[in-house]
Write a structure and sequence with these properties.
The complex is a heterotrimer of chains A (421), B (313) and C (277). Chain A is α/β, with parallel strands linked by helices and 421 residues long. In chain A, 47% of the residues lie in helices and 16% in strands. Chain A contains 19 helices and 13 strands.
Chain lengths: 421, 313, 277
């Protein structure tokens, strides 16, 4: 009889359990298992759980941006997509083409509609809008900035408080800062820029050029401004030899932090790594301009997926809203280097304190008025691959900048042809 | 295949006949039942995918949306007009030409040497063979470290010899050859062992007869050894060529197809298009083209070279 | 075998020595690197021996990835595949070797297709199949394409063919025909063939990278070799050479040690894999 009683109790508990069960949100975040940001994101999730005991966010570490995108698409294909994911702003087109995401207008309206959106930096929100709707909330946004090693500047006889502000100054500074040994081999590079398309885009924009059309259907890589920008980069590497070729995104930061290069053009998102690893005095500055001051905004936001049931979408929104609150964004900025997407975050005491100690962190935000959306088209990853591999071939002098960029333009036009309707 | 008949004569004649019919049916079905498990898995994971790949190659499909749009030969046309496809094909051909003859020649030379009565044979054999036991991924890590500019082992000694500090894997002309090097290093021990097996079946009296006829070692090799090794050479060569068109681990881990697309090989190209650009239709078309290439190579090998293979009497 | 004169012998030794050196020096180099401190390797002058040998890198590996879970996954996958293969290849090889049936030759050629088209080439469709079965990110997904083995069937068929007809007929007269013959006589006689196949199969699946990469999404089903490759692609992995080399060592330790102990067995196994005439 006792055993039966236990069974009845167990069944009763199971019957009411669903009411106690928390809503689970599967959340794909683009970082590797051992990435430096894992702890930061885990902290945000932990704090969210404290404030929202009836929601459980389960982060899945998806690797880098392309890998995380691959995971999401794989999950979509398998019929079990995440409820929430952080993807690049430029992934908006791809996710829309797959009809995978829901517009966030309803959620945003509840928070105050346009007034709510106005609390974010406009540049961070504008590239997440399409067809009159808002599709993501900006979480980790960045711009490229110039990092420079003040100690190496001093060694080279340069003023450590006057980083270059124009292309001509950049070249001259790099030439002075490049150190060679008696055999002519470089011991310190003047400048390092990784082979990253986002940075090439910014150079094109600094030269007054444009990259892609707002309707995601055209690119402008064959234009004179684009070719000139690439020519400048290539000359710095091959003609003036102040820059190494083919440094990857992560390696170039390591090089800077190890003191092997006097200047680095890279994402502000790596600021914390530089802060923690550099054993020398360093500074940050705007990207040196040419015909105009203009950089590409990078980074990612929260997307909510269509297949998720309404309660999960709701729960996902709660988490996204929390992670984009001023307090969390301020902490996130300090812990990563990404620019806090909420304007008011910069007024908070912890942010002001931090900025007083480390003024370098404000440069990216100050550069925002000059920032525009990143290049983005349909079939975005294929387009980027064509662009970056052609760029690498130009660097290797397989093509001249003009021939290479025109070739890339032609190939990209071919893949965009089906989307021209 | 005679099946067992039970000696008991119990039961009426018709039951016995029904039993016999059933046993005969079982005997006929038996071989097929035996091969069923194997062919079930083969069908699902080898034959069906090949067929389905051809099917999907006629559609445009971005992997996540349920919509598949029929586009006829458009994906194949895209391959034909994409410079990158031809570059991948060229890369893979160069890779095969670079890897296979070199690996086989070295493997044969080493096998001939190991086949002598030398001291320390077992040690040499073990040291030459061990790379077969480790993953290609591990070989990729090892060689990534050795080929690193500045601190890599190869460049240390290269600088001694006066060579500049070459960024092997970042050099558009050398990167593919670096991958060839890794491939040869990894596989030469395995082919050596296969040649050893082939050498050991060559009867001694053939060598002795050649010696009596006054043939020198060089002639002995070309007139006796090599022809008798031709079955081995044929099959190992064919396998090696087929393998080199399906190389992936070292491409993925050492160069990512770069710099530019200098080391982009077929499987990597297919992987990129299907899983990074989400273009399943195009990825399938390239896969289909690869199947046809592999099939063509096999048929060609059997039609032409197989005639020249000597089997020992 | 040609008579070896001293000069030949010296030349042979020299060549073999150089070749063996080329094979083993990379291994020695990474063993030494694994015991160095992280920044010691960034010297422009070659340092062979570690200045301050340390185990930190190996400990770091245990932190950087769920090593034991990957280990377990690999064991389950490799032995699981082999277990099923032993069944499928035995039945199929026996049928092809000793039974006559219509379509046998055509079916055999169909079998050989698997030797020509490696799983890498059918990766897109196999991935989709696995997904539609709900097996994405499971060990079963990693195992699935290999449960039938054309190679194993081929190898075992050779072995089974070698069993004399007379033996089979005699056994049949004694009441041990058909399946009983297979089970009680043929299989035991073919043990060397099974061993050879087993070692080749285990090695292959322990070392596999690409297919597990495609069908796993998280650390759930990930195998050791795949974990190594993925770590190498991270920012940390591509900069921390000493930890990467330590991780490489930990991944290849088991196959290498087993090889050192059972050299002859392994080499003989792989030797047999080429005797496909």
């Amino acid at each position: 009889m006792r055993r039966h009683a236990w069974v009845v109790v167990a069944l009763l508990v199971l019957a009411v359990a669903p009411a106690w069960a928390a809503t689970e949100v599967k959340f794909y975040y683009p970082v590797h298992l051992t990435g430096p940001l894992v702890k930061e994101v885990e902290a945000i999730v932990a704090d969210f759980h404290k404030a929202n005991p009836n929601i459980r966010v389960e982060p899945v570490w998806g690797g880098n941006y392309p890998e995380n995108m691959q995971k999401t698409v794989a999950a979509l294909q398998a019929g079990s997509p995440p409820d929430l994911a952080v993807h690049l702003a430029v992934d908006l087109v791809t996710l829309r083409d797959m009809d995978a995401i829901v517009p966030l207008d309803e959620f945003v309206r509840r928070e105050g509609g346009e007034k709510y959106l106005a609390e974010f930096f406009p540049g961070f929100v504008n590239d997440l809008k399409a067809e009159g709707k808002i599709w993501a909330i900006p979480f980790q946004r960045s711009t490229p900035i110039l990092y420079y090693n003040k100690d190496l500047f001093k060694k080279a006889g340069l003023d450590p408080n006057k980083p270059p502000t124009t292309w001509d100054e950049l070249l001259a500074t790099a030439q002075k800062a490049t150190m060679r040994n008696p055999q002519g081999q470089v011991t310190t590079w003047g400048l390092t820029i990784p082979d990253d398309i986002w940075l090439v885009m910014s150079f094109i924009m600094q030269n007054g050029g444009r990259t892609s059309s707002p309707d995601f259907k055209k690119v402008y890589l064959g234009e004179k401004a684009a070719i000139e920008a690439v020519q400048f980069w290539v000359d710095m590497a091959n003609k003036h030899k102040v820059m190494p070729r083919h440094r990857t995104f992560p390696i170039s930061v390591q090089d800077f932090a190890a003191g092997n290069t006097a200047m680095l053009i890279h994402s502000t998102g790596n600021l914390r790594f530089v802060r923690d690893s550099a054993k020398f005095e360093w500074g940050t500055a705007f990207l040196p301009k040419h015909k105009q001051q203009s950089v590409a905004i990078g980074g990612a936001g929260f997307y909510i997926f269509k297949k998720a049931p309404k309660e999960k979408q709701e729960a996902a929104w709660q988490f996204a809203k929390f992670a984009c609150s001023p307090e969390i964004q301020a902490r996130w900025n300090i812990g990563s280097g990404y620019i806090a997407t909420r304007k008011s975050a910069f007024e908070l005491p912890i942010m002001k304190e931090y900025a007083a100690k480390l003024p370098q962190v404000l440069v990216a935000r100050d550069q925002l008025p000059y920032a525009s959306p990143e290049m983005s088209t349909h079939d975005n990853w294929k387009m980027r691959n064509i662009f970056v591999t052609t760029f690498q071939e130009i660097l290797d002098e397989k093509y001249t900048p003009e021939a290479g960029m025109k070739k890339a333009q032609a190939e990209i036009e071919k893949i965009l042809a089906p989307f021209q309707k | 295949m005679p099946d067992q008949t039970h000696g008991s004569g119990a039961g009426s004649a018709s039951t016995w006949e029904k039993g016999r019919a059933r046993r005969r049916a079982l005997a006929l079905a038996r071989p097929y039942l035996y091969i069923l498990p194997t062919f079930f898995f083969l069908f699902v994971f080898t034959h069906w995918p090949i067929l389905r790949t051809f099917y999907v190659s006629f559609f445009k499909w971005n992997m996540a949306s349920p919509r598949m749009e029929f586009v006829g030969f458009a994906n194949y046309a895209q391959a034909r007009s994409a410079p990158l496809f031809w570059e991948v094909l060229r890369n893979n051909i160069v890779f095969a030409i670079g890897t296979v003859p070199l690996t086989l020649a070295l493997a044969l030379a080493l096998a001939l040497l190991i086949n002598q009565k030398l001291r320390g044979l077992a040690i040499y054999r073990a040291l030459l063979f061990y790379p077969t036991m480790i993953p290609m991924a591990a070989a990729a890590m090892i060689w990534l470290w050795i080929l690193t500019p500045n601190y890599g082992l190869l460049n240390f000694y290269g600088k001694w010899l006066g060579l500049p500090d070459i960024h092997w894997l970042g050099h558009s002309k050398l990167a593919l050859w670096a991958l060839v090097l890794v491939g040869v290093w990894k596989r030469v021990g395995y082919y050596m062992v296969i040649y050893l097996a082939g050498l050991q079946v060559i009867p001694d009296y053939l060598h002795e007869a050649a010696i009596i006829e006054g043939a020198n070692p060089w002639q002995r090799f070309w007139r006796v050894t090599f022809p008798l090794l031709s079955p081995t050479t044929f099959f190992v060569g064919l396998m090696a060529v087929i393998d080199s068109f399906q190389a992936i681990d070292q491409v993925y881990l050492m160069t990512g197809g770069g710099p530019g697309n200098a080391t982009n090989l077929f499987i990597f190209y297919i992987y990129q298009n299907a899983f990074r650009f989400f273009d399943m239709g195009y990825g399938s078309a390239v896969s289909a083209i690869l199947f046809l290439i592999l099939l063509g190579l096999t048929v060609l090998a059997f039609r032409t070279l197989h005639r020249r293979v000597h089997y020992a009497a | 075998m040609p008579r070896s004169r001293p000069l030949w012998r010296l030349a042979a030794h020299a060549i073999l020595f150089v070749a063996a050196l080329v094979m083993v020096v990379p291994l020695v180099w990474i063993v030494l690197t694994a015991f160095k401190e992280r920044n010691e390797v960034f010297s422009l002058v070659p340092q062979w021996l570690p200045a301050h040998p340390t185990f930190n890198n190996f400990l770091g590996v245990l932190d950087a990835m769920p090593f034991w879970r990957y280990y377990w996954n690999t064991l389950v996958v490799a032995f699981g595949i082999l277990a099923v293969q032993l069944v499928t290849i035995t039945l199929a090889a026996y049928a092809f070797a000793r039974m006559e049936f219509p379509g046998r030759d055509a079916l055999f050629i169909l079998l050989l297709v698997q030797l020509m088209i490696a799983p890498q080439s059918t990766v897109i469709q196999n991935y989709l199949t696995v997904t539609s079965l709900g097996l994405l990110d499971t060990k079963l997904a990693i195992m699935a394409p290999y449960l039938a083995s054309a190679f194993g069937t081929f190898l075992l068929r050779q072995t089974f063919k070698g069993i004399p007809r007379e033996l089979e007929e005699a056994a049949a007269l004694d009441g041990c025909g058909g399946f009983r013959f297979l089970f009680h006589v043929a299989i035991p006689l073919a043990l060397p063939g099974y061993l050879a196949f087993g070692l080749v199969s285990l090695t292959y699946h322990w070392n596999e990278f690409f297919w597990p990469l495609v069908v796993t999404e998280t650390t759930n089903a990930r195998t050791l070799t795949l974990g190594l490759g993925i770590f190498a692609q991270t920012a940390e992995g591509s900069a921390d050479w000493t930890m990467l080399m330590a991780m490489t060592l930990m991944v290849i330790a088991v196959p290498l040690v087993l090889f050192l102990v059972f050299q002859k067995r392994f080499i003989n196994s792989f030797m047999q894999s080429g005797l496909g005439g």
